[in-house]
From TrEMBL:
Its main location: nucleus. Residues 31-101 form the BTB domain. InterPro entries: BTB/POZ_dom, SKP1/BTB/POZ_sf, ZnFinger_BTB_dom_contain. Signal peptide: none annotated. The gene is Gzf1_0. One of its GO terms (molecular function) is zinc ion binding. Keywords: DNA-binding, Metal-binding, Nucleus, Repeat, Transcription, Transcription regulation, Zinc, Zinc-finger. The keyword Signal does not apply. Pfam families: BTB. One of its GO terms (cellular component) is nucleus. It comes from Vireo altiloquus. It is found in: Nucleus. This is GZF1 protein.
């Protein structure tokens, strides 16, 4: 008797794998490459796993796959800031990283240099959300400003209308309930 195949799939396995790789990296276990980052005199070294870097970055994949003979144990990056590369590593090992708003553009540039599609997409989406948020704030400000202008205009119109009424009464043209045309057309009768 033959049974039907069933799918065994773990929803938590990818995150567990990433978390475990991050722990191994932080402890320096099984790291097989060191990325040296030097930018404007600041230098730092980051132990990492070639497989993780190659799987998340086409730049590293090209570097590692183009090696002939013994694989290199270090890679030098000179066009990336140390803090940005540390954030890049945290992202590729955890699928998340917290950065200041003003660093999002720099992280996008790092993602493009290192050809990391996931980070690039994430930065792009965040920048889009930030832009939409700014546009909504501007629209709200503009609507508030326009409503304030309309209120001022209405107050000015009401003020000018109130000023015009006493002039009509003072001119005598509306006295005794007779319209201006009526007063000129009919002379007053004497009692």
């Amino acid at each position: 008797m033959e049974s039907n195949p069933v799918l065994l799939e773990s929803k938590s396995s990818p995150l567990n794998l990433l978390n475990e790789m991050q722990q191994l990296r932080l402890l320096g276990h099984l790291c097989d490459v060191t990325v040296s980052v030097e930018y404007q005199g600041v230098r730092a070294e980051f132990p990492a796993h070639r497989a993780v870097l190659a799987a998340t970055s086409k730049f590293f994949k090209e570097v590692f796959l183009s090696e002939e003979g013994a694989p290199r144990s270090s890679v030098l990056l000179s066009e990336v800031r140390v803090a940005d590369f540390a954030s890049f590593l945290e992202f590729v090992y955890t699928a998340r990283v917290e950065v200041e708003e003003d660093r999002v553009q720099r992280m996008l540039e790092v993602a493009e240099k290192l050809k990391c599609l996931d980070l690039s997409e994430t930065c792009f989406q965040l920048k889009k959300q930030m832009l939409e948020s700014v546009l909504l704030e501007l629209q709200s400000f503009s609507e508030q400003h326009n409503s304030e202008e309309e209120e001022v205009e209405e107050e000015e119109e009401e003020g000018s209308a109130a000023e015009a009424k006493p002039e009509l009464l003072d001119s005598g043209s509306v006295s005794h309930g007779v319209s201006p045309e009526g007063s000129a057309a009919k002379p007053r009768e004497k009692a």
